[in-house]
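Page 42, continued from yesterday. The earlier attempt failed because a stray header line got pasted into the input along with the sequence. Redoing it now with the clean sequence only.
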Amino acid sequence: MKKSQTLAILLLLSTIPCLMLAQKKELSQARTILKSGKNVGQAEQLMVNLLKDSANHNDKNIYAVWYQAVQKQYEAANERLYLKQQQDTAQFFDLVHRMFSICETLDSLDSQPDKKGRTKPSYRTRHAEDLNGYRGNLFFGGTYYLRKQQYQKAFDFFQTYIDCAEQPLFQTYRYDSTDTRLPQAAYWAMTCGYKLQDPLLTLRHRTLAYRDTPHLDYAFQYTAEAWSWLKDDSLYHSTLVKGFNNNPRLSYFLTRLVDYYNARAQYEQALQVSEQALRADSVNELALYAKSNALLSLKRYGESVKVSLRLSEVNPTLPEPYYNAGMAYLNLALKLDPRKDKKQLKGLYQKACTSMEKYRELAPAQKQKWGPALYRIYLNLNMGKQFDEIDKILKN
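This time it went through. C-alpha cells are written below.
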C-alpha cells in the first residue's frame, strides 16, 4: 500500500473517535433537556442535526431520543388545546405525523435480524401503545388539511393512517379488520389525489375506498377520471359500467357511458344504457334524450319520435327533443314514394315543420342544424315566403 493511502486511512480512523464523542455529547445534552422539560424543541433539533450525517442514519439511540423530544412537544400542545389555550393547530397535527414517521423508521432498524436470524425489537410494544392512542389525530389531521385545500399534506396524513394497517409496528392491533374508519380514510385520500389531478394517488387506495359505501358514487367517479387521465379506455369504460350499475340515476355515469358508445357507433349499447336508466327513473330527461338519439342513430325513426315527444312533455323548454323528432319525421319521409304516398308524405313534412320550427324558436343560434332541415321542409311544402327567408339565411 502506498504511503499516501496509509496516511489517509490513519487520518480517517483518527476522526472516528472524535465524531463518536460529539455524538455522545449531543445525545447526552438532548437527554438533559428532556429531563428538564424546557425547550424540548432544542433536543429535537440536536437529533435532526445528527441525522444530517449519513453515518448516523442507523443509530437507534438518535431516533429514540428524537421521538421522545417530539412526544413531549405533542403532549404539551395537546394540553394547551385541552385547556383552550393558544396553540397552532397545524403544528399540533404535524407533531403527530412526525412521531409516526420516526417510530416506523426506528422499528425498522430495531427489528433487523441478528447473525442467527433472530429479531427482538425492544421499542415496538411501548411505541405501538403510545401511537395507537395518537393515531386518530392522523385522520383528523388529514381532514384538517383537506378543509384547508392543502391536498398533498392531507394525502400524506391519510396515507400514514392507512399504512399503519400494514406496519409490523402495529401488527397486534389488526387495524385491517378492526378499524372501521379505514375505508373513509381511503376515500378521503382518493379525493386528495383527485384534487391534485394525480391519477396514481387517486387510484392507490381505490379498493379500500369502495368499502366506504356512502361515498361509493364519488369513488367510482374519481377512479374513472384517473383512468381517463392515464388514457386507459378499457379500465375507464369498465369503471363507468360499475358506477352506472351501482347508481343508474347519476348523470355522470349515464352521460359518459352514452358518449363512449356513441363515439364508437355502438348505438345498441347506448340504447341499453338509456333504457336501464329509465327503469330506475322513468322521467330521467338525460336518459330519454339518450334513448331518442340512440333510436335515431339506429334508424328506428317511429320509436325515436315517440320518445322525443315524451321528453318534450316532461320538459317543454328543452330544444333537442324537437330537433330529434323533426329529423325522424324527415327520415321517415325519405322512405316514401313521392308519386304514391303524396298525402302521407305531406303529413310527415308538416309534422317535421312543427317540430323543427319549435326547435328554431328554442335554439335560435343553432342555424347549422335547423337551417338545412327547414330549407328541405319549406321546399317540399311549397312554402315560398319561408323558403326564401331560409335560403337567404343559409347563403349569408
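Notes: The radius of gyration is 35 Å.
Reminder to self: strip header lines before submitting.
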